[in-house]
């Protein structure tokens, strides 16, 4: 515990793996690295030294003979760390070679996963109840680490160990014991997982810990409900000419014939005997089961039972003893079965999976933060619901603005197309008013809604070409066309209608001069004649209708719940809507000759103005109703891991 680690002092404080730091602090020992001056005085690099707190070397006064100083040091108990074999996720262990002050022979210390360490120890040093004790501790959710020691032979000298392989050292060890660590759930964990479950977002555990420890923690945090079964899945690779097989066992008890019949005896037999994966079936529809799979078993299933892997992924909740590359393969496998995967990790072992996931969240600002697109400053998973809510809100906002800009272009195109049919067009000031006053203000402010405070089971569309979005845009286009056609055709049937050229309200009527050249119809003549080609009953009616349609689609597309805050919380958007609507209503019902002159609007009867108001109110109501219907019919349920 004091010597087998990779801790190093930085700035007067020990830094390194949190687990190793806790273990070392529990010993109370002192770690001391040689200074640059001490290293420079020797041909070889001086080792890092650890010693008990009551063995602090005395400060010898200047002038003390060297032999007296050596006598004082021989009374100390110090261990020098000569060689370090770093922890390997694939090997699940680390080791060091040390030398105790005053001894000639070297020693090796090793720690790691209990199963791995036990396999490298002499059988006579392993207690007979090793497996049962280990199982009892892991079932309590404790993290268990095994310790081992080996006193090296005289042939292992200083120079030889500098180039020796770890395999030559990590064998024939003496088993020392087990260290138990309790990693309690953080207060934020249970509420966050409960919120994700309410939103129908599936959660799985991927860890390097022992299988039973992981299952215990999964039960404690609610990933596995108390009354639901856990099936331990052990896949064995081909050996001695026999095909790969899969063994199944309940985590709480050995399977009885009754239990096997409940799951499906024939189905289990097919898979255990290693028959064709295409014939393997799993009868788990009548009850809830959770598979717990180790890293080695996951690799065997991926290689030899590829058709069975998707079925296991649908019910797999615990993945234990997973190496870094296996975590990445798991994320890829979940993505292949159509899951949107978010990954949380806090170590270098998670970098590959964090990078591969759709949304990787690093809970540490160290190695993992380099690979993940998101880094949380809070070392807990409370950021996960926030990220999902903000991501959904951002996606809905993007689609909202996209649809609004698409409808803006189509609405204006329809207006111009109808006016072209009578050799007319929108005026310059009308274009400026629409583009700057209406579109720019609404497009900017409609994106300012914050995310909704709760997660919901529904999910937003994930693609611009989804049926829901296309149907929404298409229905709004047809609705806009219908109301513009109604205004365009009905105004020409009014008894007071006459061809363009009678001027604005309060202005003297005048005629419009049109001429045609030999190549087609063109506007010819002075600026006054061009202005008269704009001013008409059709232009005035379509201008008011189209302007209110921009407001209508902006209001309909700016959705609130379940992904964003309600519209009334977006003050700037509400203010923009009210300002635009008030201006249009005022100019429609109480026209001012000067404004009509600038906008090139014709004078229309008050009754027709009221009709246009009723028309745009109907348009607004239908736009809102159709958009709500499209949203309710197209919203799906979330399928994520």
UniProtKB/TrEMBL annotation:
It is found in: Membrane. Coiled coil: none annotated. Its main location: membrane. InterPro entries: ATPase_P-typ_cyto_dom_N, ATPase_P-typ_TM_dom_sf, HAD-like_sf, HAD_sf, P-type_TPase_V, P_typ_ATPase. It comes from the Eukaryota. One of its GO terms (cellular component) is late endosome membrane. One of its GO terms (molecular function) is ATPase-coupled monoatomic cation transmembrane transporter activity. It holds the Pfam family Cation_ATPase. It is a multi-pass membrane protein. Keywords: ATP-binding, Magnesium, Membrane, Metal-binding, Nucleotide-binding, Translocase, Transmembrane, Transmembrane helix. GO terms for biological process: intracellular calcium ion homeostasis. The chain crosses the membrane at residues 399-423, 429-448, 469-491, 570-588, 608-628. Signal peptide: none annotated. This is Cation-transporting ATPase 13A3. The lineage of its organism: Eukaryota, Metazoa, Chordata, Craniata, Vertebrata.
